[in-house]
Amino acid sequence: MIKFAGSFTAALSLIGVLALAGLATPATAAPAPPESEVNTTGEPPGSADPARGFVDGHTHLMSYEAFGGMLLCGKPFDPDGIDHALVDCPDHFPNGEAAWFENFTRTGSPTGTHDPVGWPTFRSWPASDSLTHQQTYHRWVERAWRGGLRVLVNHLVANRQLCEIYPLKRNACGETASLRLQAQRTFEMQDFVDARSGGPGKGWFRVVRSPAEARQVIAAGKLAVILGVETSEPFGCRQTLGVPHCTRAQIDRGLDEMHALGVRTMFVCHKYDNALCGVRFDSGTQGVIVNLGNFLSTGRFWSARTCTGPEHDNTIDPAGVLPPQIARLFPRGIGLPVYPAAPHCNTRGLTSLGSYMIEGMMRRGMLVDIDHMSVKAADQALDLLESRSYPGVVSSHSWLDPSYLGRIYRLGGMVTARSHHAEPYAAAWRESLPLRRETGRPGYGFGMDANGLGALPPVRPGNAANPVTYPFTSFDGAVTLERQRTGERVWDVNVDGVAHYGLIPDWVEDIRLVAGEEIVQDLAAGAEAYLRTWEAAESRIP
Hints:
Blueprint: H1 8-20, E1 40-41, E2 54-59, H2 82-85, H3 100-107, H4 138-146, E3 149-158, H5 160-165, H6 175-197, E4 205-207, H7 211-219, E5 223-231, E6 239-240, E7 243-244, H8 248-261, E8 263-267, H9 284-298, E9 304-306, H10 324-327, E10 344-346, H11 352-363, E11 367-369, H12 375-387, E12 393-395, H13 405-411, E13 414-418, H14 422-439, E14 445-447, E15 472-473, E16 480-481, E17 484-486, E18 489-491, H15 493-496, H16 504-515, H17 517-524, H18 526-539
Parallel strand pairs: 2-3, 3-5, 4-5, 5-8, 8-11, 11-12, 12-13, 13-14
Antiparallel strand pairs: 1-16, 6-7, 9-10, 15-16, 17-18
Helix pairs in contact: 7-18, 8-11, 14-16, 16-17
């Protein structure tokens, strides 16, 4: 027996001697950190001309940094691992009772409970109807890419009023600062994926700034990520009692900054009337909340008239049951106005500053998203785009009157329809076919709006008669997909719907069962259709 006594230093010296003599036990490698599975086999193929694959025209990868940074729980990546990324918000512990915003948006009541534990059990979240929990963890996005996604439009999102209303925050409420931070996080995610894939430029997640760059990425079999912006007060362009808070010079500086960040598509207004345009209303209790936000932002509630034409905005419903945390924000003695008979149309349209912003976007070859515009504003915006024969117009998640789709397609624009469960999504696709054939616009897309405070597609009712069978193959047959597992939880689209972003391929397979191979091939033409609209917009730069 070898005996040593004395100091810890002596012991270390002896270990060093033994190591040199080859007698010490070799050090064991540190165990790999835990990680979500992807549950696919096979590699996504590249496609150059045409680009083949799905397009999601509307998702929010980095919205966890928006609204003060404490409204949405969890992150799409964390250098310290999944057990640091997929954690619940502090105010959701110990059992979800204090998570009034989560409870209200999920069930219509501010009361409720859920298991806040994420990794590794995930008993309560993510779920298709849980709006405050992370849905776009990087391994789930990877599964969507491996299953056929080739273009993802990542909308940087901000809403100053929602940030100010929610009591917890770690980020300031300024919208432009939030957009900058989310753009930074997107490039950090690209670097993170690169580091896991062998080094700079080798990852599957590629932020692109031009359609030519997007084509190169897709030709290499990777995911082209385009930056967009969906914010309620672009460049500080709010208004108070009709008085704008921005100038043309601010708009030019803002567009220049966003373009330099890599942003290539933008909304002009979102949720609240601003100095640029009037909005398409929200309905129901959510509409009451957003209308209050409009009052706090502008000093006025929405102004509506009874529509006289076929186009209309969403109906403003009578006040519903509000959580006390929201109800107390109504100024003393002030309630919602009495509105005329439906159908409702916002009296506010596109302002001269709004027209100037659209003209500035055209000068930069950017895509103009007309979702969330009032019918008056959308009509005026399309008039302006048509007068310039500008094809760079999109509807990314069906927040507009459907009668405008023909004008979008005739300009050469693109529609990525709001995701639903398979049957209503397939029905909307069927309705689009005659118009798209008439205008020569093949290719269809979806706007998943993940992490956008909207539900993901739920379980298809009656799916027991023809469920998705696992394993299944991607649209091109290159990748086989099993049920997705993260930690102890296994998801099945037949039981869970689209609980998170990784179940998009499963949802497409569910759509195939409902509507056949034709819709899947039309979705697979979506990436090419989106790139052609973008290319046409760039070709129109003066």
